Amino acid sequence: TAAPKAAAPASAPVSAPSTPSAPSKPAAKPAKKKPRAASAPAKPRSEGQALADSSKQSLVNRTSAKESMAAAEKGKAEAEARQQQAKAKVQSLSEDVERVNSEYKAAQGKAKQEKLQALQKAREAKKAAERDEKAAEAAADASAKGLKKAKKDEEASVKTVESQKDNVKKSLEETKSQKQKLQSKLDEARKKEEEEKRAADEAKRKAEEVQRRVQEEKKKSQ
Questions:
Q1: pLDDT tens track of the chain, all 222 residues?
Q2: Domain count of the fold of the chain
Q3: Torsion from C-alpha of 112, 114, 119, 121, nearest 10 degrees
Q4: Where is composition skewed (Low complexity) in this entry (predicted)?
């Protein structure tokens, strides 16, 4: 008997043809930022505006200087009052020292020791009062110098305000003069324009008169 035929090997499964993939889109470019619009340059201040601003500032400085001087006057008065109080306290304690010293000299035994302690305390109190008096005197001197400076500043501010007033007055006068000159030029220009118009009207009238006569002569010759 014939040997059985060997079975044919199983064929590999055929894969379906792959569809071509769509081409990828290029990445979107980032949007360009619009350049910032350049800020408009600040308008230069006119001479009149600058003068007005300067005058306002001068008045502000004048008010400030006046207030500073008033505060300095008050501070000086208070410092002088404290100085007088300190001086009076030293005088009073000096009298206490003299009194206690006399009592100490007259005392005997245990009382003398007590008076010595009282005398030491009186002297210490006097020394402390003298230190306070020196401090009050220094404060009074400083306040006097401060008032002197405040007065100078106040006087300077008054002069500045007066100077600004003169400048404003001068500026107004110059503006008025310029306005008058401009008005004069405008009047002259109007007058010249009217004269030119009258001359043109006269020339036109004469031309029309000549043309009329020419036409009349033509009619007569016919």
A1: 344 444 444 444 444 444 444 445 555 555 555 556 555 555 666 666 777 777 788 888 888 888 998 999 999 999 999 999 999 999 999 999 999 999 999 999 889 999 999 999 999 999 999 999 999 999 999 999 999 999 999 999 889 888 888 888 888 888 888 898 889 899 989 999 999 999 999 899 989 888 888 888 888 777
A2: 1
A3: 170
A4: 1-29, 82-91
| Cβ atoms 58, 156 nearer than 8 A | no
| Exposure b/e, 159-194, CB count within 10 A at least 16 = b | ebbeebeeeeeeeeeeeeeeeeeeeeeeeeeeeeee
Kindly state whether residue 35 falls inside one of the protein's structural domains: no
Element (H, E) at 86: helix 47-106
CB-based contact 76:143 (threshold 8 Å)? yes
The token pair at 74 is 């008050």
- 168 neighbors 50 (Cβ within 8 angstroms): no
**Domain extent at residue 187:** 63-213
Q: Is residue 22 part of a domain?
A: no
Residue 98 lies in a domain: yes
CA distance 2 to 16: 41
